[in-house]
């Protein structure tokens, strides 16, 4: 026996590639998992026998996604363009909600600030300061050093509209990668796999999932109570009614905060829209 611990970085059918001490081990899973109805996922931290090359045990997951099939995602990087396509705060707020609800940290990377005037840039910077103040890291794609440092060794899924600059960002992080960048085609994630195949790619010491997460966004699993995870700033205000929904109530501290511009109006409007969607 030579037991080690590592991270699954690739699965092709029933073959699991485990990374441990910067070495790769091709392992199989023991039948036990099938009886327990747990199949190992890319991202899983596992104990494995490095002589016999089989996985013994899966450590508890902090989260898992269906698309891509991956676990222990540290960050969902929301690539957000200012123009082409136009900034959608509604989409941004929805992504933040869905990502936080999955127990993943959303991080914003703003792109295409070069397409607007110096004045507008100031306005957008102020807007994104608001998001920083509610605890979301914001980076800009004209200088990736801070982002690189922040994502070091983390498992990251990329999300954001087609054309927002996801592939360009990966290319910037790794000049050798040379992914297709164009406004229409998705370089990552397309392609039909008949066998189970998931992989994370190490680029600049960051583990990227090879398919974009959260491609179809719906509010599945989110309730009128758990929606607040996506609106952390609301918890700074204590309403008169303990179960205040901040919509029709006559007196509401959250609505007061919207009126006095302490809470961003667009965020509150999105909250109301999502609540309606949950009806
Ligand atoms: N002006 C400008 N263009 C960008 C920027 N980032 C990406 N692009 C361009 O936007 C288009 C779409 O980028 P791409 O990376 O393919 O977007 P993806 O669909 O999210 O992967 C390409 O023509 C890129 O060259 C940016 O910061 N500024
Ligand atoms: Mg792309
Ligand atoms: Zn309220």
Describe this structure in words.
The protein is of the alpha/beta class. It folds into 3 domains: 3-60, Nucleic acid-binding proteins (OB fold (Dihydrolipoamide Acetyltransferase, E2P), Beta Barrel); 65-209, 3-Layer(aba) Sandwich (Rossmann fold); 226-277, Ribonucleotide Reductase Protein R1, domain 1, CATH 1.10.40.50. Helices cover 24% and strands 25% of the residues. The chain has helices at residues 32-35, 89-101, 118-133, 145-151, 166-173, 253-259, 265-277; strands spanning 3-12, 15-20, 23-29, 45-49, 54-58, 64-65, 70-71, 75-81, 105-111, 137-140, 155-159, 197-203, 206-209. The strands form 2 sheets. A 5-stranded mixed beta barrel has the order 1-2-3-5-4. A two-stranded antiparallel sheet has the order 6-7. α2 (89-101) packs across α7. The radius of gyration is 21 Å and the shape is globular. The relative contact order is 0.13. Residues 182-194 have low confidence and may be disordered. Residues 239, 244, 246, 249, 252-254 line the site of zinc ion (ZN).
